[in-house]
């Protein structure tokens, strides 16, 4: 949780700094470009973390769904074999 907060705070700080630099120097100044790349890195880190959380949630729900379906599948398989 602390990592999420510090990552978000870093992202917001980098965004604010980029806005200030852009207003002071314009878009093509090297300082603005460096800050933009730093902000991109924060965004990439945030997206990777978010993607990992979504992936982990999906895997957990897939596992629980599979655990629920396996008994049903085995009962259906047994019933179809005994009916023959």
From TrEMBL:
Organism: Paenibacillus albidus
Top-rank taxon, per record: Bacteria
Taxonomic lineage: Bacteria, Bacillati, Bacillota, Bacilli, Bacillales
One Gene Ontology term of the molecular function aspect: protein dimerization activity
Biological processes annotated in GO: regulation of sporulation
Name this protein carries in UniProt: Aspartyl-phosphate phosphatase Spo0E family protein
A Pfam family reported for this protein in Swiss-Prot or TrEMBL: SpoOE-like
UniProt xrefs under Gene3D superfamilies: Helix-loop-helix DNA-binding domain
